[in-house]
Amino acid sequence: MTLHRRLLLFGAVLPAALIALALFLIGLVLDHLLLESVDRGLTLQAASESVSLFDRPGQDAHLHFGDSALVADLQRLHHQGALYGPDGARLLAYPADTVAPERLTAADVARAPALQTRVLASGERIRELSLAIDSPRGEPHALWLAVSLASNDAALAAYARAAALIGAAVTLLLLLLQIAHARGLVQRVQRLHVHMQRLRDGDFSTLPPADPGTDVIASLRDAIADATDKLRTASELQHRLVADAAHELRTPLTAMRMEIDVTLRRERSPEQLVDALARVRTEVDRLGELASKLLAMASLRRSEWERVPLDAVASVRDAITSHRLVAERRAISLHLHAPEAAPIRANPGPLRQAVDNLLANAIKFAPVGSAVDLTVRDGETALEILVEDRGPGVPLEHRETIFAPFRRLQRGVDGAGLGLAIVREVAEAHGGRAWVSERPGGGACFHLVIARA
């Protein structure tokens, strides 16, 4: 079932059916209440007649219909009555053309009023009451009273017409309103459906059409628009990463091929072959480093970030120990400024990799004989690791781009250009961020912030 039909069914057809059912049930209740009113009248009349049937001199039986001051009302409402003797013969009747039974014995009726509805040959309904009464001489008699239900039927017919008219008007109004509402709702959902089809086909170029509403569909449209924008950005980054990776891979491959081609053009001495193979080995190492960095970056993006308790200061100390030999070759001293311990919940492998990348980057650009400072700041909501060098620093216009994959400030510098990109991936995966600022006195200061879980 389509959305449009479902909205019409539950928004118009079903409510209309429920309204019709409610009006029908109200009609049944009204019929019951009107019948109860008639029954009360007949019962009161029977009580009145039963105590005064034999109150005349000589205890002769008589009915009081003709003696009542309301005889005109009784005739208008078609009140009827009859009294039957011990043998069941009809003794008295009002009016003369009554529809009372010809015979009715006291044995045929109960001592308590018995009420029933009878339909005459003309189709008119009447309400009957029968009751057994003893005369003062102990003779059993039967009293029969009746009233026409024509006024009740007329009231119910009028109610039925009014209910049908009101029900039809309400149903039509509901249908028109629901058609307009459903059409607008379906159009809004259809626009989102078309947009989702484009997303499924890989088209992130456009956002979903604007929605002027303020309901959940408008909120859904805004969420889809935000997701589309993020998908578009991710797709652009992915394409750029693939293009940059292809370019970076092509460079050492080209160098290796040229070296091999030159070597094969003429005979070479063993020393020349060793030199050529050494240069090829250097390019192979470049390819290996680039592949390792790409794999590390891919694993960071798809891995599950399970945090465990660890000491950040101990991780930084281990990184310093691992890089001390490289730093000593360039007479660079490494200094740690940190508390005794800085407990935090983090992913130990990626955190250590980020610190290694920052420290290796600082040692690479630090002047010979200078120092690199590592600082650990333990805060209430986050932990911050700072790595400062005395190198040339990072120009303001490049402080954001250097965190993108394959971005280098200086060409010819060793490295795949992925170290800082991995640092930012690690920081963001931990709910933090990474950035670079200028070190007071010159140089660069890299910040790695890890949010507390």
From TrEMBL:
Domain named Histidine kinase: residues: 244-453
GO molecular function: phosphorelay sensor kinase activity
Chain coiled-coil ranges: none
Pfam families in the cross-refs: HATPase_c, HisKA
Gene3D superfamilies (alphabetical): 1.10.287.130, 6.10.340.10, Histidine kinase-like ATPase, C-terminal domain
Domain HAMP: 183-236
Subcellular location(s) of the protein: Membrane
Identification of the protein by name: histidine kinase
